[in-house]
Design a protein that fits this description.
The chain is α/β, with parallel strands linked by helices. About 20% of the residues lie in helices and about 25% in strands. The structure holds citrulline.
Length: about 250
């Protein structure tokens, strides 16, 4: 059974980091309700939910994707590019270890945010962004290449993380909103989507993707491709430069 690592949003979510967006009011109660809806979308499709301990003093703690990345049965614990987010790692380490998952980690002076890691089959695209540095990418490469993964560095200047601009469909097609993508030609198969919040998809199974409710035209395009599309409202997280991918870590057995 696939497992989903999540952490409930902090009441201080509104204080989270912002890089490309202006700060606007965030409704913490609505955020919690949206988070519950997100988790339910997985639970009702057979995913086991694993909750990492709350970290209510960490405004961005809900974005667990940035703290740890799965490569098959190996977890890589990240070292956050934003100093304000470094306190998230210890509780994530504890949650991952308690789940019996083997763990490696990125060490100082390396920085890596999981939002900069896009896996397509055994290919790993890593965003060189304001959060992920060359040393972090080198450390990740040293961990992964001996294990049979191919690692490609991708420039990211227009959005926070690589996966704020591109994600991948079940068939490996990389989808992205072109104004936010530095160089679409770096991906062997790329398809543009018509909406900014349509860039992020989570693959639920070979025929189904989960995406934001704020990208209806993109959802229609995916349905036209033959995919089932599940939508969730994640507006309060989008205000903090989050998206559907960053609210969980997917552990597929
Ligand atoms: C941050 O700036 O770190 C958070 N406010 C948003 C993180 C979103 N994470 C992601 O896209 N993987």
């Amino acid at each position: 059974m696939p497992r989903l690592l999540v952490r409930r949003p902090s009441p201080r979510l509104a204080e989270g980091e912002l890089t490309h967006l202006d700060r606007v009011p965030v409704d913490a109660d609505l955020a919690l309700a949206q988070w519950r809806g997100y988790v339910e979308a997985f639970r009702t499709r057979g995913w086991e939910i694993v909750e990492i301990d709350p970290a209510d003093d960490q405004p961005d703690g809900v974005f667990v994707e940035d703290a740890v990345v799965m490569f098959g049965d190996l977890a890589v614990l990240c070292r956050a590019g934003a100093v304000s987010r470094r306190g998230e790692a210890e509780s994530v380490r504890a949650g991952v270890t308690a789940s019996g998952i083997a763990l490696e980690e990125i060490a100082e002076p390396g920085t890596l945010d999981g939002g900069d890691v896009l896996k397509v089959g055994r290919t790993v695209y890593v965003g060189a962004s304001s959060r992920t540095n060359a040393e972090g990418i080198a450390q990740l490469r040293a961990l992964l290449e001996p294990r049979g993964w191919e690692v490609h560095e991708i420039p990211v200047t227009k959005v926070l993380h690589l996966k704020s601009g591109v994600t991948a469909l079940p068939d490996g097609t990389v989808v992205g909103f072109e104004p936010l993508v530095d160089d679409p030609s770096l991906f062997p198969a790329f398809a543009g989507v018509p909406e900014e919040h349509g860039t992020a998809v989570v693959v639920l199974d070979d025929d189904t993707v989960l995406m934001s409710a704020d990208a209806p035209a993109t959802a229609e395009e995916h349905r036209f491709r033959g995919l089932d599309v599940v939508t969730v409202d994640v507006s309060e997280f989008e205000k903090l430069e989050g998206c559907v991918t960053c609210l969980s870590v997917r552990v597929r057995d």
